[in-house]
Amino acid sequence: MFTSLSRVNSSAATLTKNRTEGSVVPASGMCVTCVDGCIGMCEIGKSAYRGHEVIYPQPFGVITTAAEKTYPVDYSHFNVMGTCVGAHGIEADSDKAIFPAVNIEVRFGHDGGIKFRYPWLIPGIGSTNIAKNNWEGLAVGSALAGTGLTIGENVVGMDPETKLEAGKVVDTADLKRRVKLFKEHQRDGWGAIIVQANVEDTLLGTQEYALRELGVECVELKWGQGAKDIGGEVKIRDLEKARLLHERGYVVLPDPTLPHVVEAFKRGSFKEFERHSRVGMVSEESFAKRIGELRKAGAKYVFLKTGAYRPADLALALRFASKYKLDLLTVDAAGGGTGMSPWRMMNEWGVPPVELHSLLYRFARRLADRGEHLPALAVAGGFTFEDQIFKGLAMGAPFVKLVGMARGPIAAAMVGKTIGMAIQANQLPVYVERFGSTKDEIFVTAGELRKELGDEEFEALPPGAIGLYTYYERLAQGLRQLMAGSRKFSLAHIARSDLAALTLEAAEISGIPYIMDVDNGRVEEILSG
What we know:
The protein is 39% helix and 14% strand. The chain is α/β, with parallel strands linked by helices. It has 3 domains: 12-55, no CATH class; 70-230 and 285-529, Alpha-Beta Barrel (TIM Barrel), CATH 3.20.20; 233-276, no CATH class. The strands form 5 sheets. Strands 4-5-8-9-13-14-15-16 form an 8-stranded parallel barrel, surrounded by 7 helices. Strands 10-12-11 form a 3-stranded antiparallel beta sheet, covered by helices on one side. A two-stranded antiparallel sheet has the order 1-17.
């Protein structure tokens, strides 16, 4: 029996709920009995008085969100296959093949010059408040861990202190700070800071500035993301800033230059402007031209990030990344996290992770079999824990080298920051206080970090960075354990054969064998003697 995969008309994301929560029409999400006199708690009701504001998750600036749609197939429909025989990447010796010996470092780029201690990166967090307010923890934590962090779209355009000459950026405060925080804490060349650009960033010359003035080596073109089908958007609560962004070429709604809009804002009819980015228009001619410009400007490594678009667009992204010899292609699937995306769009558009990543493998395999260049590939779309990371790497093996995550790292940084403030205020909740009352007692990685950095540098660390670093440490140990169980002691040995599909539908979509068909040939050989 088919049931609805979506929840309609009420969600914590839009601060709405049904009056009759136990009796709701599945198709519309409306209460079975819609009563005259209801104040309008559901999404329809709230839209009757707040209109377009209810399109977006709320409250803006202090949350990240992700789709709550239940897809027919997801990564939980696959299990990791282990074995008790042999070892790959290490001697098959029980004293040597222990999980701490698993190597999860990854190197990529045209010259192998980018090196990460862990096979994941944060694939793009930009101008939203949730990113800006937690950047200290994200940047310092990523640098200490030796992984990648992408400065997302619109950071330069949103910065009131950005200085422009002839329409191009010549100085910034926010972008400079974001790059500096990472680079100051980067150790022995591990990890990378990446500067992404959309339409407006390109017009402002953001990446050229980052390459020329900030010592950035990695830049990324952005075609889109998995959370939405349009450009980036944020809320603006200041009239003068709304006007500034309008002057810089952004789409600002309502138009802050119109007298009646200004009057309505001052009267309190609405309290937030919306700033939107334009959608890009991809063509091979413009793509090739931009790649040439970036390399001429000094980019050592060029990446591309694409979203959950239709299969033909994925094929185009892979083909261009191959033809123009990019260093990394990130493919972000539907339902992933965001600081602000239209809520229904986030739930109802795009190709979901298993389907999109299966298509990616299929297309990459075809190009590889023809002997064509393939960049390193990264997959994203709701990854949070080590089992999912293993499955993402295995689903796309041997082409997928990295997994992209944003909501999980942001959550870890926010919790670390909150604990730090609670320690300072001497107001730790019992749930945390049972571990102690200081950073050294609460954060399990504190001893390691203090020893490595020294007392002075450790004490200066933002608690959000320790939170992210500690979360990453957990993921790393968990991934090593899973890999050791599959007897794969380096990332290069992870294969699609390390997975089994738990349903026939998952097997058909992915090309991963159904659990009852795994090892059929080998089983027959063993039983036949």
